[in-house]
Design a protein that fits this description.
This protein has about 375 residues and is α+β, with helices and mostly antiparallel strands. The chain is built from 12 helices and 9 strands. It has helices at about 5-10, 15-35, 95-105, 110-115, 125-130, 140-150, 200-215, 230-240, 240-245, 290-300, 310-325, 335-345, and strands at about 70-75, 75-80, 160-165, 170-175, 190-200, 220-230, 250-255, 275-280, 360-365. Strands 3-4-5-9 form a 4-stranded antiparallel β-sheet. Strand 1 and strand 2 (about 75-80) form a beta hairpin. The radius of gyration is 37 Å and the shape is flat.
């Protein structure tokens, strides 16, 4: 079966005049050296892969080198000792700088190109695009990007632009750029961005974290204290966080505290040093020993006294927070919208609601628009009937 030759072979041009000229020059240097070095055949088959209009000859300002050379002919290699001296090259730094500026102005990112034309300092467009509403990035990627371009303190200085579609708050973040040491330098320009905030998701996250931090779950005392068969490390963690357990509805005490109370002898262990005296109760949620074990496990990775909640409690708080939050379709005044934005500054994780719904996304970089004016104008809410 005949096989077609590779396509790459058809693209090789036959020997060009430039290639044969190079062979002639090598032979002239050989004859002038006075050494017995075989000549390069004139009819050697050379494939010239460079475009016809390319000038591949180097230009040296000053060179001092011997006339010795390496000559390759067929499969044989002839090497002659060669010594090198310094070669001086001239570099036009101003020309390189001008070319760099021109290349940056021709960036593939339209944001970077227009910011350069407006005299605005560059920024990491990849991070901004990951946080943008139109990028459709995953929640994990978008949250990580938002945490890099927004600090919690920024929520205290964001300006409310208005409400969109009775469900979203448009805010403007305008902050001076910082130098290499993190100091704000207004002369470097400003970062001026618009963000869209889901009013229900943001308010729900605030209510959820407030419930997690402040709620004390009711408990019911057991008829007989139940022994806790925990490891020594888990018992130590539980003893250091008795108040946290109690606020979760689990009342735990040492054996001597419950010594005067009849215990469940069938489940009692001679090594048990802690007893469960009361456990949490709720109208719609049933708690058990697995929830207590989950709490002890969560407390191992946190500082002493840090509030933790088991998964059942978090689901219960998420449902309560959803019911009491601002709903989509409700018109908000400036004061209520500002309160929702300011609350985000105190959240532990402000990027998603407890059900996983994103709270905000980047909407637009105002410095990327042509004719951008860095002067700031606040919204005149009186024109809209606001206070």
């Amino acid at each position: 079966m005949d096989l077609a030759p590779p396509q790459a072979a058809s693209k090789l041009r036959p020997s060009s005049s430039r290639a044969h000229s190079l062979v002639s020059k090598l032979n002239q240097r050989r004859s002038g050296s006075g050494k017995n070095v075989p000549a390069v055949p004139e009819d050697i088959d050379v494939a010239d892969l460079t475009p016809g209009d390319w000038d591949i000859s180097p230009t040296l300002v000053e060179s001092h080198a011997a006339d010795d050379a390496k000559v390759v002919s067929g499969s044989e290699l002839y090497e002659v000792q060669r010594s090198y001296e310094d070669v001086t090259l001239q570099v036009d730094l101003e020309g390189l700088r001008a070319r760099y500026q021109d290349a940056r102005s021709r960036s593939t990112s339209p944001w970077a190109r227009i910011r350069f034309q407006n005299g605005i300092a560059p920024r990491n467009d990849a991070v901004v695009e990951h946080a943008n509403l139109a990028s459709a990035a995953s929640d994990e990627v978008a949250s990580a990007a938002l945490s890099r371009i927004i600090s919690k303190g920024d929520f205290m200085h964001m300006n409310v632009v208005g409400q969109f579609n009775l469900g979203f708050i448009i805010v403007r973040k305008r902050t001076p750029r910082v130098d290499v040491v993190g100091k704000e330098e207004p002369e470097l320009g400003f970062e001026d961005d618009l963000f869209v905030v889901d009013q229900h998701a943001a308010d729900e996250k605030w209510n959820f974290e407030s419930l997690q931090e402040t709620t004390v779950i009711d408990s019911q005392r057991l008829f007989r204290p139940q022994p806790l068969n925990l490891t020594a490390a888990d018992e130590l963690v539980a003893l250091e966080n008795l108040d946290v357990l109690k606020r979760n509805g689990f009342e735990v005490g040492p054996v001597e505290v419950s010594a005067g109370i009849d215990c469940d002898e069938e489940e009692s262990s001679p090594n048990a040093r802690l007893h469960l005296i009361a456990q949490p109760v709720s109208k719609d949620t049933v708690f058990d020993m697995k929830d207590l074990e989950e709490l002890v496990h969560l407390m191992q990775d946190r500082p002493k006294g840090t509030m933790v909640r088991c998964s059942k409690a978090r689901a219960m708080f998420a449902m309560r927070a959803c019911r009491r939050s601002v709903m989509i379709g409700r018109p908000l005044d400036r004061s209520r919208m500002t309160t929702i934005i300011r609350h985000m500054a105190s959240m532990d994780q402000p990027w998603n609601c407890p059900h996983g719904r994103p709270t905000m996304r980047h909407l637009s970089d105002l410095t990327s628009f042509g004719g951008y004016n860095s002067s700031f104008r606040a919204v005149n809410w009186r024109e809209f009937g606001g206070e």
